[in-house]
Amino acid sequence: MSRFTIGFKDTVERADYLALVVRVGFPSYFIFASAQTLAFGYGYLDGMGLVLVLTLDIPLVLLMAALLFQLSPPVTSPIELQLTETGLPTHPAHTIFENLTRRGFYHDAADGYLTLLATNPDDNLARFKLAEIYRHHLEQLDRVEQVYLDIRRHNPTPEDDRRVSHLLLELYHRTGRQDRIMVELARLADRHRKTPAGENALRALKYLRAGYQLREGARPSGATRRRSSASIKPPSEPEGNSSPEPPPDPQP
After folding, report:
1. CA distance 102 to 78
2. pLDDT at residue 80, as a whole number
3. Domain around 24
4. Do 115 and 213 lie in a common domain?
5. 142-151, 174-183, 231-240: which has the minimum mean pLDDT?
6. Tens digit of pLDDT for each residue in 63-109?
7. Which of 46-64 are b and which e, b meaning 16 or more Cβ less than 10 Å from the residue's Cβ?
8. Rounded distance, CA 60 to CA 25, Å?
9. Taking the model in full, what pTM does it have?
10. CATH assignment at residue 199
């Protein structure tokens, strides 16, 4: 004989089931109990019957909540869609943190990734997911940059290195850091030369440098400004405004 059981992947799913019991089970039990108490008042149930049905209502409510939990479809959150679009795969070691992120517990998920990285510092995939949380949900852009730079310090693959460069360029463009954009483009063009990413970075870098030189060429140089200042003499006072010499003392 088969037995109906509920399987939970982690404590987060168990918490979701308990929340469903609270949202659905308690109101259902109250409705059942009210109807049965009304039946007892009209004489359809005696005292023992009322106690029996009120007791049986408890497993009935739990069974209803379990059926709703099993039949409810999984919810795909915006962060999951973003991870899919950026090509970040799931990982068994990240399941609980991904579930926390999906349910909106962003601080708890970030703390979990940090704890995981303390014991497994080479998990750059966890760093990418941590940066996504900081960037899209917690708005901590300084930490986003730090996480991306940490990936470079932990033996990234060439693909991860290119991904970090593109994400940093997007971050610097968002924060208006033009100097860092040029530095990152130069690094990308040098590290990934003869690749489409490196060629695109080189073209973008040349375009930005040409625009910078054009703007600098439109400004007068320092020597030109000094010569211009030296050629301007202060106006001399008009002769009419010069004070007259005092008359000589009269002779005795």
Report:
1. 8
2. 42
3. 11-71
4. yes
5. 231-240
6. 888 888 777 655 444 444 344 334 578 888 998 988 888 888 899 99
7. eeeebeebbeebeeebeeb
8. 9
9. 0.56
10. 1.25.40.10
